[in-house]
Amino acid sequence: MIAHPIEPTILVIFGGMGDLTWRKLSPALYNLYLDHHLPERFAIIGLDMKKLSPNEFNKRLRDGANSFCRCGSVDDDHWNLISPNISYISGNFSEPAIYAALGEAFKAQEKNWGGPANHIFYLATPPGIVESIVRGLGAARLAHDRRHTRIVAEKPFGHNLDSAVALNSMLTAVFDETQIYRIDHYLGKETVQNILAFRFANALFEPIWDRRYIDHVQITVAEQVGVEHRGAYYEHAGALRDMIQNHLMQILCLIAMEPMVSFDANEIRNKKVDVLRAIRPIAEDKVVHHAVRGQYGAGWIEGQKIAAYRAEPGVAPDSPSETFAAIKLFVDNWRWQDVPFYLRTGKRLHTPYSEATIQFSPVPHQSFPTSATLAWQPNHLTIRIQPQEEIVLGFQAKQPGANLHLSPVNMHFSYQETFKTRSPEAYETLLADVMLGDATLFMRSDQVECSWSAIMPILNAWENTPPVEFPNYQAGTMGPEAAEVLIAQDGRSWIQSPLDQDPEKDPGVSG
Ligand code: BG6
Q1: pLDDT per residue over 150-161, tens digit each?
Q2: CA distances from 249 to 327, 328, 332, 343 (A)
Q3: Who contacts 81 (Cβ-Cβ below 8 Å, separation ≥6)?
Q4: Total-model pTM
């Protein structure tokens, strides 16, 4: 986020009554207001099908902020200052009337402010409606002012490479690429953004950040939650599309990219695209050696009985959708040739945590007696994204005492302990950046398409061979056995996070 004054802004939320607005946008906006990151002249216009009074919409936003804001509950005095700038338009997104009403609302607001404002269109709607909105905005000439108009799109950006290309060309037929802000909320997380600072604002690690010193990289995003009320969406997505194609690939890019010349949105995005382009294509008949899928069956988490994925609402009783995916990728360039990147994610896993670990190579020669190095481990650097926000460096130290024993120890940097403040939510950072017109943390069309290209062989192979073994992991474990085999076949293993206790020891886990 670049700090400079934000021009007057009207934020238009398509899907104003939806879950995303309620859970994420409203609390983020309220926090931005509290932190003085909203422009002085700022208005919200909610749009949705439902007939509502502006007051009812206002109440819904307030309820979202009250329920999910990191600041605790909403303060009446503050909300009363925001309220007059909240309005609502109901209507059908495929009919011109709603866009005409929006145009009138802009005119009225700008007349009131005595000057033009930036217009931000936030698509907080299901993907099926996006096309009619974009075309409606285009037809009503609400998209043509490139300098003052922006559109924010949420994932999924397509269902596969072809549909992503089609979506991008539909968007760019109406908006210029510079007006489009594709959200990957992982890029708004402080710890994810800090990967760039850690790598390129310090001279210490960059000289060893390559194939000569790094054995492999692991990225884990483990979720304890299931699909919640999103069974119908998830049935068509699955873990590979839902998480790996976007969030995990973006983390991989930040770890693998070359240093940027300047902190410029396109420069950084170019460097990330270089990584995605260098990902070694996987032949469809070799997918089995590179990717593993899983689906959870019933189990226990923290003493609670958890239903199987196939028993979730909106999910088919014989669903082939994966709720777990682990893949191995290579980045074919000078820096990373033959260094494996292992990525895994899953739902209903034992412990929720997201982290990336850079595992360094062993020392070239072990000079200590074997008896001293029984507990020896290679150096590792772990970037903890959530719930802990930390960077941990693992190395060996001599245990105190007369005998020579080496033990792995850790050096910790914790955000909370160091900065004594809670990080902003990803949506706060991203919304503020859209208002500032800073696209660094957003996905460009080529990033999205290259990322789809990298995983298409896996998606195709999985579609062509429906799983016969689902469900293949129990809720409350860390995924299917095959994920262990994927990495064990290379003589490596998933690094167990200290956050993750042994599932066997959880009294809630049934046998
Ligand atoms: C979303 C996925 O993009 O990210 C969800 O659609 C997932 O399935 C969520 O639960 C995870 O985000 P976070 O910020 O909770 O790690």
Answers
A1: 999 999 999 999
A2: 11, 12, 15, 8
A3: none
A4: 0.94
